Amino acid sequence: METVKNVKKAATSPAGQFQAGHSPLIQHQPLPGVESKMKPRPRAIATLYAMEGADVAIAYPPAEESDAQYGRECHIFPCDVSVPENCRRLVEERVRAMGGLDVAECKGTMGQNLQNKYIPSLFYLSKYARPHMRPGSCIINNASVNHCVGEGNLLDYSTTKGAIVAFARSLAMQLLLKGVRVNCVAPGPIWTPLVVSSMTDEELDSFGGTTPLSRAGQPSEVATCFVSLASADSSFIAGQTLHPNGGVIVNG
């Protein structure tokens, strides 16, 4: 009983999750200073999938080997998914290694010429994954709040994220009658390596401060959206976008 009281007290105290300045206990991190100390969002997603009992496979750029080789055993595939042949090989090796494919979580790839990398990788991953997906399977795309609010200094990034949302909605209409759901998650602002590597110290000090919750989110607070969309609990959700963004109201 005392434990229950303590949980209730923590949830209703000034340090509760709905209070300004709250730091979530589920994956607390110090304020980022160097990019290598950040825990990437894909790792958080893969971890929660594994906690639900799923067999996990991830594709990653070879330069991120140290991040991929972390924690629980999973199948890892170093490759550049902006290359169509790599997408085909990735799906085939995944199916051969794990016996099937039920959930495809497509993030895209970073680097120069984002429009030429993000969208083709989502298209080809979905194309090659679809024949292996049974009714009840799902595809989940990773977008960003920037497709709604816009960022003048992230024109290419924001543009591609908007395209990802449109892709998910249209693909959902194609695959609904085949029993495959397609949805999207549009996070932000979230502490990620991209944030640390692309912002000044002054910008980092105020990062996330304009959200109604007055803080940026943690990767683990986004990962739960992916797990929820992948589960049977979301069987009536298709062509939609979830917005873990600290309370920012968007219409898209």
UniProtKB/TrEMBL annotation:
Top-level division of the source organism's lineage: Eukaryota
Region (Disordered): 1-37
Gene Ontology MF: a single term: oxidoreductase activity, acting on CH-OH group of donors
Gene3D superfamilies reported for this sequence: NAD(P)-binding Rossmann-like Domain
Alphabetized InterPro entries for the sequence: NAD(P)-bd_dom_sf, Sc_DH/Rdtase_CS, SDR_fam
UniProt KW keywords: NADP, Oxidoreductase
UniProt similarity note: Belongs to the short-chain dehydrogenases/reductases (SDR) family.
Name of this protein: NAD(P)-binding protein
Lineage: Eukaryota, Fungi, Dikarya, Ascomycota, Pezizomycotina
